[in-house]
Amino acid sequence: MKLGAKQLRTTVPEAGDIKKIKKNPIFIILDNVWDTYNIGSIFRLADAVAAEKVFLCGETETPPNSRIKKASVNTWQWVDWEYSETAVSAIEKCKLTPIKSGLKIENLKVVAVEQSPKSTPYDRADYGFPVALVVGNETSGVSKKVLDICDTIVELPMFGVNISLNVMVSLGIVLYEVIRQNH
């Protein structure tokens, strides 16, 4: 089922509608993302790549929220999501989450999108399915506790005077690299 923004804004999915969507084994974890417009836009990204689930962690605002609804064009109702007290607990839960076939996720690769001395360029990483992508707070980034348990840290090159990109933009670029490598 393909819906335009106008339809999405007014459509409330039924359980059967959501089950018809073939999901990719992609988990998106928001580690204290504060901006509700970023959160809403990340729901749009999750819908665009048919991500399995979004975890909203820590101080990340959760739906229903008018700004999340507006930025997500209501995709927050179509994307499976849950709140988790911490990103660490969300990562642990991802590793135990059953996928549609009823099997547990094995070999989940957890990748932080963050600038770090330990990071590699995003386009040189291997993003085999299943994968969990972690993005962090707009000011302080992904927390050290989370970085310590990630399998890989990736970053996007910056060639101008600015040292970083918006969290949603960075996630979008990496998500489409994940899709490119797996389809």
Describe the structure in your own words.
The protein is α/β, with parallel strands linked by helices and 183 residues long. The protein has one domain (5-182): Alpha/beta knot (3-Layer(aba) Sandwich). Helices cover 33% and strands 20% of the residues. It contains seven helices and seven strands; from the N terminus they run ααβαβαβαβββαβα. The chain has helices at 5-10, 15-19, 36-48, 66-72, 87-94, 144-149, 167-182, and strands at 24-31, 51-57, 81-84, 109-113, 120-121, 131-136, 152-155. The chain has a seven-stranded parallel beta sheet with strand order 3-2-1-6-4-7-5. α3 (36-48) runs parallel beside α4 and α3 (36-48) packs parallel to α7 (167-182). The longest helix is centred in the C-terminal third of the chain and has 16 residues, at 167-182. The relative contact order is 0.18. The mean pLDDT is 91.
Topology:
Blueprint: H1 5-10, H2 15-19, E1 24-31, H3 36-48, E2 51-57, H4 66-72, E3 81-84, H5 87-94, E4 109-113, E5 120-121, E6 131-136, H6 144-149, E7 152-155, H7 167-182
Parallel strand pairs: 1-2, 1-6, 2-3, 4-6, 4-7, 5-7
Helix pairs in contact: 3-4, 3-7
